# Entry
Amino acid sequence: MSKNHLYKGALGTVLLKLLEENGRMYGYELSKKALELTNGDLDITEGALYPALHKLEADGLLTSESERIGNRVRKYYSLTQSGSGAARSRIAELEEYAGNLQKFLNLKLSNG
Amino acid sequence: MSKNHLYKGALGTVLLKLLEENGRMYGYELSKKALELTNGDLDITEGALYPALHKLEADGLLTSESERIGNRVRKYYSLTQSGSGAARSRIAELEEYAGNLQKFLNLKLSNG
DNA sequence: GATAATACATAAGAAAACTATGTATTCTTG
DNA sequence: CAAGAATACATAGTTTTCTTATGTATTATC
# Structure
């Protein structure tokens, strides 16, 4: 069972991170990679994946190229220059958030 | 400027954590404490706070008592027994998520 | 006396997810 | 070889969860 609910709001940043690391990926590949790297916690549904990719592209952070593999079409995405910058800042922000959240959740009354 | 967007989906768990640590708090107090403990990152708006508290109460995780302080009414919330259990499991789940997220965001191609 | 802070609440709207559905190709397995 | 699973895209309708805006009222500050 997925823990998608925890990743609420982080999906765009997760996609940017994957593209930053892997350079060029298509939607289905991104969803499988996310599943693998989160040990099955993040099972991105198609209804979340494709609109999210379209939004990142509309925002100028991604470009896409459709490629014909046999009779099947794949749409490869990669970061634009602006997307690389956004990736760095969004990843850093989310990392900081994760650290702050851990500290907060570990607080004991004695500390505070 | 707040970083509320990062806390998307985590608000209920944050409130449970605060009540677990402090025992008995009212809405306004919860929002100020969250602001303080997150160094200003989490500025819970009233439109998020009160519906969230009402939902936790409706779900049986909180009970409330209205108390008259001078001429002003405060609504104090505390965890029910079921709420204590939910707090523990939700906090643990979110902690684990934060750790996994950090690992994921720190991945380098060489690792994966 | 005006403004900010305290204290609750709800309504309308937006964002981001989910479920469901649609189309089509390719692989696997009985 | 037929059926089902996996691959690969996409969108529509719905739900959740937040924001912004509004409302009421008391108390503190300047």
Summary: Chain A touches chain B at residues 3, 5-10, 13-14, 17, 21-22, 37-39, 41, 91, 93-95, 97-102, 104-109, 112 (CB under 8 Å).
